[in-house]
Structure formats: structure tokens, C-alpha cells
Amino acid sequence: MRRILSIAIAAALAVPPAQAESPAQAESPASRARQNYDLLMKGQKRVSDLTAAERAELATLEQLARQVPHDGRSATERCRADEIKRAGGSPSALEMRIIGLKCSQR
Length: 106
Prior knowledge:
Layout: H1 2-13, H2 29-42, H3 52-66, H4 75-86, H5 93-103
Helix pairs in contact: 1-2, 1-3, 2-3, 4-5
């Protein structure tokens, strides 16, 4: 159930607020959470006005918003990319060897 709610909220994040309906008419927990969030930010609603279920939906929405997208690269690949960026994007052959040594233990 929680997984389904997370997926639904993630989908709602992609919906522009102008297209969303009012919380009473919201079709899914995700769209309801998005609408309640917008109303809270505008000051048209207070947290105390929300039901326990609506607060839980907002908590899930907040958790999803804080998640960092998964980076599929290995630690070594991330290290090399970061070091190359620090070197200005086009390091010399010597700098590349140093980067290789620096990142080889990750």
C-alpha cells in the first residue's frame, strides 16, 4: 500500500498545479497531497485543518521530494568525473594519471 502511495505521489509531482483539482475532488492520494501542499503554501489552509490521512500523504510527498536520484555510476566513476571537473574539464595526461591513482582505491 505504501509503495502504491509513493508511486502515485511521484506521478502527481509531474502534474502542474494549474491542472490539479480541489482537494475534495482529488482522484488520488498523490493529487490530494499536491493540492493540500499548494493550499498550505498559499496560506489558504493550515496543517491543523488536514486529516491524519492527508498529513500522511504530505509526509510521503516530502520524503519523495527529498530523495536523491540514484546515480548508476560506481564510486570510482563518480570520483573520476568529479576530479576531471575540478581540473577544469580537460586535464593533462599527468593529471589523468594522478586522478587514476586517487580514485583507484574506491
